[in-house]
Structures are given as structure tokens and as C-alpha cells.
């Protein structure tokens, strides 16, 4: 038997790739190029030999900081391009390859140029906003100022009493000086302050003014005609122009402080209409000039950003690669005396030749006089697990890895999950009408695979796209099981011929209730349509699906135990075969294997025997000898083997070989581990008790196949009969349309979404708990090679 198993052809996905622990001794001058080439290959996982050092104590920390700074600048460019509303160019631009130092200089120049343009643009925008606000205040406040020619104080009111809080505005200074008067006749005359404030602050602003002046003021406001852009947030803000009339110097001081606190901008407005018009003309001409300048600056800035966008993707990719290379170099041990870097890691055995060729090419390209040394070593830790998957098998492998990564070289449940997972889902979801709906969705995702794979999808859509092939198989098996159940949106059809039953006589008008007799061979495939609507439909389908669930569960659990046998054969563990596989097979099949046999015999012979009493009598006299068989022998045999293997090795062998002297301090060598008998015994006891109790609970757990299948069928029947048929019984077209809409909504959101998710989760539980715990340890760790292909797009 062992020879037969050894001669079986290897299966890529059945067991993980064979790995080897290697050491690299790389001269300093070729280290960067060698690691970069290894990143392109992506088949070597480096081991961190400086785990005891902080990131700031490593050799290439300065290079990593430089790459991080360049990444920050590139992110700044990307934000500026996005803020400007430009689209990053996908056109290939011929540009010679840059060195990291040259790229660093270019990025610094571009950043300095952009910062200057942004600063100038902000200043111009601020001046433009101030002039625009001043123009609005002149337009709105002029209506509030009623000139009284007979009032003597009006000629003495001077423009300098009105506040102009913006020091940068100089253009209207000449007019202000013209309005100034040398003296005042009455300090308590009526004065006013005009300005503009955000619309959201007007109510609080007015309330505060009223309280501060104790009601001795008049507040007028009017909405501005245009919205003003906030230079910081670049959002359009609504403003309100206002004029506050007051009397007295003390009130003036309070109002100014309140304006400053609320962020209101105050502008001088003369009472003379002629001067208002003159200032308005000057402000308008200045606004036109500033608008032209702003447009020219935006065009120049967009031109610079467009030229950057042509190279942005290439630069970001280059910086990410360089940072990843230096991060990897920091994992190597730097030997100052030998001027080389020493690295260790894992690689698949099939990749050794490729790695050696790449290292030779790196040595040649870097013109190094010393070659890179690449040799295999022994290792104490378990190798990583690496499965070569594709777009089809990758999703099923992710389902298994979500439970736990396979131990090195143990049997991979994903091989069987490819078929068993969608099949058990279909057993619970069986309806070939619903299966066709799922199939259409899966075909759409697969047809648009090349387009969707390059887009950023939402979390839900990304999950559906990643599992498109799982959805495809689930839909195909759902159609298959739906044909067996003979359900198309809960309606049976005579697809494979006529029914095996007919009316007994002419008085049998209702063939669904009574008087049916069998007159020919059984229905060729699936459930006979005549069971639909009969009085015995529910008892028949209950019995059928319950027994079928037990058969499927016992078959899958036996498959798990058989896989544990192949694991034991692969690892040459005869103890697991004798004291684990054999008693487990006998225990499971003595109870539930026998039950499954009785179910098949009952189906074939039509016996009326009661299986419940048979199982009760079997549980009253179980096989008591199997539990000690699983519990006691294995721990004691393991202890005996360990004692014999390490007998006389307490002190070890004194050796002074060159191999012992040249061992690197961080190298992994075989070490003697202590044997903890109590831990082994407790683990074996837990495993034995778990199997014995789990044999019953796991078999009962497979009854969820029956329960969910029945629930799905009954829900579909309720929606069809109580919604669609009930609405179709009316002659009113609107009622029929509403019934059809409700039926479609219930089918799409309840049966196709909620029931799909429910069946998916239950199938997932059956594989993780009931199937995989028979053979799967799942305590390994993934093979994570240094690869540029796996670098995240948003990596810093």
C-alpha cells in the first residue's frame, strides 16, 4: 500500500510546495541589485535577522527615510492633481530611467514650484475675495444710507471713522484720504460700520451686537449677490452684507471687537453716491485684472500638474520598489569586516535554479569582483506553506486559509472544497430557477473579469468578484439539486417525462389529494411532480432530505478520516494509523456508517422498519474499547521513541569542526527540544473525547442540510402561492402588477440574497468544523515572499 501511494503522481494543490532554508552572502556593491532582482522574481521569503533592533538602528534607515519623504511628495502631487480636477494620464511617455538621487532632486524642485504657485494663488484669491466683498458692501450698504442734506452733522462725518480691517488693501487709499476731514463738530453724532459676514453667523452676530450696545444700535442686512470661495476649503460660502448704526466712541469699540470675534470683514463706505460709484468702478477694474491673473496662474499650475501626471505612476512605482528593497536590506545582517550582507530565508525547491541565475546576473550587472554565495541550510522552525493557485482555485484556498493556514506538507482541504462546498450549498439552496439567477450573476462577473480586476470596487462588490467562480459552481450545483428536487421557483415540472401516478377512477377529480395509484416505473430523475400539493408531500420530503443529510454527512466525515490516513502515510507515522485512524473509522462506521447502510437498504427494499429504535439500542451498548485505544497508546509510544532517540545525548558531542566554528550567530540549526509527556497526553485526551462526542454532534449538525433545504422550499412556496397566485386571481391589472413586484422583490432580496448568505455560512461551518477537524491542523503560516507584485498601491 505504501508503494502504491508513493507511486501516485504529485498534485500541485494537494500538498504545499517543498521548501528549503537558504543563506545568501551578498557583497555590498551588488546587494541592492540582487535584492531588486529577487523582488521581481518573488520566490524568496527573507528572515528578519535584526528583529532585536529598532527601525532606527538598522543599516539603511537613512535610505528608507528618503524614500518615505519622496512618497510624501508624490502623495502631495496626487492630491493636487485630484484637487485640480485633472485625470492622471495613462499615455506612455518615453523617459530615460532615473536614479534615486536624480528623482529626489526632481521631486524637490516640483514640490518647491507647486508650493510657490499655491502660495501666490492663495494671496491673489484672498485679495480677489476682499475686493469682491468690498464691491458687494458698496452695492448693498448704499441702499441703507439715507442722505439728509439738512442735517449739519452729515457734512462732518468722515470716512476714517468707518473701519477697514484689511491692511493689504491699498488701492482705495487715495479716495479715503480725500474723504477725511480735519475736525469733528460732534463726537456723539450718528455713525455706522459696514461690512460682510457669513450667513450662518448673522443671527448670533446681531444678538451679540444688541446685547453689547443694550439695544442702542440699528442693524440692517442684505444677502450678497454672489457666493465667495473660501481659499482654504475651496468651498463656496454665502455671505451677508450689513450696516450697523450707532452713537458714541465706546459703542464703536465694542462693535469692532465683536466684528473681529465673528470673523466679519469691515469696509469703508462713503455716504456720497458719487464717491460710492467712483470706488465701485475702481474696485471692478481691479477685480477684472485679478481675475485675469488668477486664470493665468491656474493655467500655469494645471500645465505643471499635467506634466507631473505623465510620470506620476512610474515615479510612485519606482519609489515603492526602492523603499521595499531597502526595507528588505534592513532585514539582512551587515558584516563590516567582510563587507557583505548575510541573509537567510525560505524558497521553494523548484525556484533554486531561478534564484541562482538571478544572483549571477546581479553580480554581472553590478560589475562585482566577488560572486554571491547561495547555499542551503538546516532549519529548526517549520517551513512556510505555499500553494500555487490561480484565479479559479484561489478563492477556495482563501476559504480554507480563513480557518487556518495548512501545516507544511499536510493535505490541503481546498482540493475537496472545490466540489464539496458548492454541492453542500446547493443541497440547502436547491431550486433550478434560483440557480439560473445566480448563474447569470456569476457569468456577468466572469465576462467582465478583465475590466473589473483593474477597478477599485466596494467591499461588497469586491467580495462577490473575488468569489465569482465559487458563485459559478454554487449556481451550477443549485440547478442540479433543483432538478432533483423538481423545483423551479417552487413549481414542479414534468421535464423528464410523465408522472408515475394517476387517478384510480373517474371520481378522482383532484389528483393532488386522494385516489392516486402508481401505474408505471418511477419518475426517471428527481422527485415525482405528483408529490407536489399531496397530503403526504411534507412527510415524504422530510424523510427524504433528513436521510440524505445523514448520508452526505457520514460520507464527508469518512472522507476526512481517510485523508488523515494519507497524512499519516505521507509523514511516515504508523502510530497515527494504528491508534487514531483505525479506531476512528471503526467507531464512526459502527454507529453512523451502520445507520447509513440501513437507510440505503430501507430505500432499496421498501422496508417499514423503525430506524430510531435500532439506533437507541446501539447507543445503549457502544464499543467501550475504542476510546482507550485512541487515548492511551499514542502518548506512551511517543515517550518511548523520544527516550530511545536521545538516550546518551544529555551532554552532547564535543566538536571543533569548521562547520561548528563558522555557524552564524543567527543561523537556524537543529536543536534538541524537551518532550512534555503531560502536554502530549492532555492533547491526546482532548482529541479523543472531542472525536467521540463530535461523532454524534457532527452527524446531527449535518441535519442543517435538511432544515435549510426545507425552509428554502417552503419560503419559495409561500411567496409563489400567497403573493403571486393570490394577486393573479384578481382581474385588476394594478393588483397583478403589485403582486408581481412584491414576488420579484421577495425572490431577489430574501431568497437570492439572504438565503444565499445563510446557506453559504452553513456550508462554511460544515467544512470548517465537521469536515476539517478530522484531519486538518491548520497551524502553519503562509509563504510571504519578497515580491514587487504584492506591493500595495497606497504603501507609504
TrEMBL record:
UniProt record, GO biological process: vacuolar acidification
Membrane topology (UniProt): Multi-pass membrane protein
Alphabetical keyword list: Coiled coil, Hydrogen ion transport, Ion transport, Membrane, Transmembrane, Transmembrane helix, Transport
A molecular function GO annotation: proton-transporting ATPase activity, rotational mechanism
An annotated GO cellular component: vacuolar proton-transporting V-type ATPase, V0 domain
Listed InterPro entries: V-ATPase_116kDa_su, V-type_ATPase_116kDa_su_euka
Domain of life: Eukaryota
Locations listed in the record: Membrane
Membrane-crossing segments per the record: 423-446, 467-485, 548-566, 586-605, 611-632, 733-754
Keyword Nucleotide-binding among UniProt keywords: no
Coiled-coil ranges per UniProt: 100-127
UniProt function note: Essential component of the vacuolar proton pump (V-ATPase), a multimeric enzyme that catalyzes the translocation of protons across the membranes. Required for assembly and activity of the V-ATPase.
Family: Belongs to the V-ATPase 116 kDa subunit family.
Name assigned to this protein: V-type proton ATPase subunit a
Organism: Morus notabilis
Organism lineage string: Eukaryota, Viridiplantae, Streptophyta, Embryophyta, Tracheophyta
Amino acid at each position: 500500500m505504501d508503494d502504491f501511494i508513493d507511486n501516485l503522481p504529485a498534485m500541485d494543490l494537494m500538498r504545499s510546495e517543498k521548501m528549503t532554508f537558504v543563506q545568501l552572502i551578498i557583497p555590498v556593491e551588488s546587494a541592492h541589485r540582487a535584492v531588486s532582482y529577487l523582488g521581481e522574481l518573488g520566490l524568496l521569503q527573507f528572515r528578519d535577522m535584526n528583529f532585536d533592533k529598532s527601525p532606527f538602528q538598522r543599516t539603511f534607515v537613512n535610505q528608507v527615510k528618503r524614500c518615505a519623504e519622496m512618497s510624501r511628495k508624490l502623495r502631495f502631487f496626487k492630491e493636487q492633481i485630484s484637487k485640480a480636477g485633472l485625470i492622471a494620464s495613462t499615455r506612455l511617455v518615453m523617459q530615460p530611467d532615473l536614479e534615486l538621487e536624480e528623482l529626489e532632486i526632481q521631486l524637490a524642485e516640483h514640490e518647491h514650484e507647486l508650493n510657490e504657485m499655491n502660495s501666490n494663488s492663495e494671496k491673489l484669491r484672498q485679495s480677489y475675495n476682499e475686493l469682491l466683498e468690498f464691491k458687494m458692501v458698496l452695492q448693498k450698504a448704499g441702499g441703507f444710507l439715507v442722505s439728509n442734506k439738512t442735517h449739519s452733522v452729515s457734512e462732518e462725518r468722515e470716512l476714517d471713522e468707518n473701519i477697514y480691517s484689511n491692511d493689504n488693501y491699498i488701492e482705495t487709499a487715495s479716495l479715503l484720504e480725500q474723504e477725511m476731514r480735519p475736525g469733528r463738530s460732534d463726537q456723539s453724532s450718528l455713525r455706522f460700520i459696514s461690512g460682510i459676514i457669513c450667513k450662518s453667523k448673522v443671527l448670533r452676530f446681531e444678538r451679540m451686537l444688541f446685547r453689547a450696545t443694550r439695544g442702542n444700535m440699528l442693524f440692517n442686512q442684505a444677502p450678497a449677490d454672489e457666493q465667495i470661495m473660501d481659499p482654504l476649503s475651496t468651498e463656496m460660502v454665502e455671505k451677508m452684507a450689513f450696516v450697523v448704526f450707532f452713537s458714541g466712541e465706546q459703542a464703536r469699540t465694542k462693535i469692532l471687537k465683536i466684528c473681529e470675534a465673528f470673523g466679519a470683514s469691515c469696509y469703508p463706505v462713503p455716504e456720497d453716491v458719487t464717491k460710492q460709484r467712483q470706488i465701485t468702478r475702481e474696485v471692478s477694474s481691479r477685480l477684472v485684472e485679478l481675475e485675469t491673473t488668477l486664470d493665468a496662474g491656474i493655467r500655469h499650475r494645471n500645465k505643471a500638474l499635467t506634466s507631473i501626471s505623465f510620470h506620476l505612476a512610474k515615479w510612485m512605482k519606482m519609489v515603492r520598489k526602492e523603499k521595499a528593497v531597502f526595507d528588505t536590506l534592513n532585514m539582512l545582517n551587515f558584516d563590516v569586516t567582510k563587507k557583505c550582507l548575510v541573509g537567510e530565508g525560505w524558497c521553494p525547491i523548484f525556484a533554486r535554479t531561478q534564484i541562482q541565475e538571478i544572483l549571477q546576473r546581479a553580480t554581472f550587472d553590478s560589475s562585482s569582483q566577488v560572486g554571491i554565495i547561495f547555499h542551503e541550510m538546516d532549519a529548526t522552525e517549520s517551513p512556510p506553506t505555499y500553494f500555487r493557485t490561480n484565479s479559479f482555485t484561489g478563492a477556495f484556498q482563501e476559504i480554507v486559509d480563513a480557518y487556518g493556514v495548512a501545516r507544511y506538507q499536510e493535505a490541503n482541504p481546498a482540493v475537496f472544497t472545490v466540489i464539496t462546498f458548492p454541492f453542500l450549498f446547493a443541497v440547502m439552496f436547491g431550486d433550478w430557477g434560483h440557480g439560473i439567477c445566480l448563474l447569470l450573476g456569476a457569468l456577468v462577473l466572469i465576462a467582465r473579469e478583465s475590466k473589473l480586476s483593474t477597478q477599485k470596487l466596494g467591499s461588497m462588490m469586491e467580495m462577490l468578484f473575488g468569489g465569482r467562480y465559487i458563485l459559478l459552481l454554487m449556481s451550477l450545483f443549485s440547478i442540479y439539486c433543483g432538478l432533483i428536487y423538481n423545483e423551479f421557483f417552487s413549481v414542479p415540472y414534468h421535464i423528464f417525462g410523465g408522472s408515475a401516478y394517476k387517478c384510480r377512477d373517474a371520481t378522482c377529480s383532484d389528483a393532488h389529494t386522494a385516489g392516486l395509484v402508481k401505474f408505471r416505473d418511477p419518475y426517471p430523475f428527481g422527485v415525482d411532480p405528483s408529490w407536489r400539493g399531496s397530503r403526504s408531500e411534507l412527510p415524504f420530503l422530510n424523510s427524504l432530505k433528513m436521510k440524505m443529510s445523514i448520508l452526505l454527512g457520514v460520507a464527508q466525515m469518512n472522507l476526512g478520516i481517510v485523508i488523515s490516513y494519507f497524512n499519516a502515510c505521507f509523514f511516515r507515522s504508523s502510530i497515527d494509523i494504528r491508534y487514531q485512524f483505525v479506531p476512528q473509522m471503526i467507531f464512526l462506521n459502527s454507529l453512523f456508517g451502520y445507520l447509513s447502510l440501513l437507510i440505503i437498504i430501507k430505500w432499496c427494499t421498501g422496508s417499514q422498519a423503525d430506524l430510531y429504535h435500532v439506533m437507541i439500542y446501539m447507543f445503549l451498548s457502544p464499543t467501550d474499547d475504542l476510546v482507550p485505544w485512541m487515548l492511551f497508546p499514542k502518548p506512551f509510544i511517543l515517550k518511548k521513541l523520544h527516550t530511545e532517540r536521545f538516550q546518551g545525548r544529555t551532554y552532547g558531542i564535543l566538536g571543533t569542526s569548521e562547520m561548528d566554528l563558522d555557524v552564524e550567530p543567527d543561523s537556524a540549526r537543529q536543536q534538541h527540544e524537551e518532550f512534555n509527556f503531560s502536554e502530549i497526553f492532555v492533547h491526546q485526551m482532548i482529541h479523543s473525547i472531542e472525536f467521540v462526542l463530535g461523532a454524534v454532534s457532527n452527524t446531527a449538525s449535518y441535519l442543517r442540510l435538511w432544515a435549510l433545504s426545507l425552509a428554502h422550499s417552503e419560503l419559495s412556496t409561500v411567496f409563489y402561492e400567497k403573493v403571486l397566485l393570490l394577486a393573479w386571481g384578481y382581474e385588476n391589472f394594478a393588483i397583478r402588477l403589485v403582486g408581481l413586484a412584491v414576488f420579484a422583490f421577495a425572490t431577489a432580496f430574501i431568497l437570492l440574497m439572504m438565503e444565499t448568505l445563510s446557506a453559504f455560512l452553513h456550508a462554511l461551518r460544515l467544512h470548517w468544523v465537521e469536515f476539517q477537524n478530522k484531519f486538518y491542523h491548520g497551524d502553519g503560516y503562509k509563504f510571504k515572499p519578497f515580491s514587487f507584485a504584492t506591493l500595495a498601491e497606497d504603501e507609504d
